[in-house]
Write a structure and sequence with these properties.
binds adenosine-3'-5'-diphosphate, alpha/beta, single chain, Sulfotransferase_dom, 333 residues, two-stranded antiparallel ribbon
Length: 333
């Protein structure tokens, strides 16, 4: 089996070598000839990925993941609050077996509790065995909706999509890629990463196409796609958490409301509580040559933090670009 998996992954590897490489695609940058992090992205059906394991994993997932109608997929572009949404969904779905004081979230990073198809499950060069996982399976992905195979689209699984103001998403992204450490560390200038972002060349980018794919899916199929925003989660946590629970078909009862179950979940999943857990202060996620420090997932969590990093001209450029790309689709930021 191991050999068979190795053959499968080798095929993807070879395919990846034929895909457009960002190094040739991007214009020269100010400080270096290219931001280090974006140097080796590959373009797959119009979206940019890190090839070594993310794209391998995405390709393997496309071909081998067999969804169930009961699956719940947390779908996001990077840096929009994925970690938070994973924690909220996990805590809510498992609240009977794991009340907050016994939650797995106290000892495991949310990205372990809710594994990603392309990073964790299919990114390890071995096809995972997911049939024994009891329903409902709670999984996640950054894979754009446009890249979903038709078998996924028709499976009837539920999608919770989260997005965020693009300027805050970008600022969070820039901090993140300079903070994660693997074999290399990055010191990419804000200007360089910004120029790359405007070209759509960043993890799972272009951002506008990522958002549009899921937005359109939510219009076509509102029962199966819940479209949420980070800002709404921040401003109306109770309302959004209730909605999330209903959508996952485990609504909070009146009794639970009276007992303060929602407060407990929101409190356990708050940025302050999560960041202070030992596992999130000192641990690593994704056992791979490319590992992330858990503390890189927790920064400020502020709406509008972009004003501290982008000039008005940069903000205007990104706003205009998003407006132009999302023109007439009923979605704005
Ligand atoms: P900032 O960099 O703006 O602070 P992702 O989880 O998709 O990687 O997104 C990370 C962003 O979500 C970071 O934003 C991070 O601080 C914020 N975040 C992480 N955990 C959070 C939580 N429990 N509550 C609110 N925001 C959170």
């Amino acid at each position: 089996e191991e050999e068979q998996d190795e053959r499968i992954y080798k095929t993807y590897e070879q395919l990846i070598l034929t895909l457009p490489d960002s190094t040739k695609y991007l214009p020269p940058f100010s400080s270096s000839s290219m931001t280090k992090f974006h140097q080796h992205l590959r373009c797959y059906h119009g979206f940019w990925f890190r090839p070594e394991f993310v794209l391998l994993g995405a390709m393997a997932a496309q071909d081998h993941f067999v969804p169930r109608s009961s699956d719940i997929l947390i779908c996001t572009p990077p840096k929009v609050g994925t970690t938070w949404l994973k924690a909220l969904a996990f805590a809510t779905l498992n609240r009977n077996d794991q009340p907050c004081r016994q939650s797995l979230l106290l000892s495991h990073n949310p990205h372990i509790c809710v594994p990603s198809l392309e990073y964790n499950l299919y990114g390890e060069r071995r096809l995972p065995e997911l049939t024994a996982v009891p329903s409902p399976r709670l999984l996640s992905t950054h894979i754009p909706y446009q890249l979903f195979p038709s078998s996924w689209v028709s499976s009837g699984f539920k999608i919770v999509y989260l997005c965020r103001n693009p300027k805050d998403t970008f600022v969070s992204y820039w901090h993140f890629i300079n903070k994660i450490t693997g074999e290399e560390s990055y010191h990419d200038s804000l200007d360089d990463v910004f120029n790359s972002f405007l070209k759509g060349v960043h993890l799972a980018g272009p951002l506008w196409d990522h958002v549009l794919g899921y937005w359109n899916a939510s219009l076509v199929n509102p029962h199966n796609v819940l479209f949420m925003r980070y800002e709404e989660l921040k401003s109306d946590p109770f309302v959004r958490l209730r909605r999330l629970a209903e959508f996952m078909q485990c609504p909070f009862s009146e009794e639970e409301e009276r007992q303060g179950v929602l407060e407990k979940i929101l409190d356990m999943c708050s940025l302050e509580s999560m960041r202070n857990l030992d596992v999130n202060k000192n641990g690593h996620t994704i056992k791979h040559s490319f590992k992330f420090k858990n503390d890189a997932f927790f920064r400020k969590g502020k709406v509008g933090d972009w004003v501290n990093f982008l000039t008005p001209e940069m903000a205007e450029r990104l706003d205009q670009l998003m407006e132009q790309k999302l023109h007439n689709c009923g979605l704005s930021f």
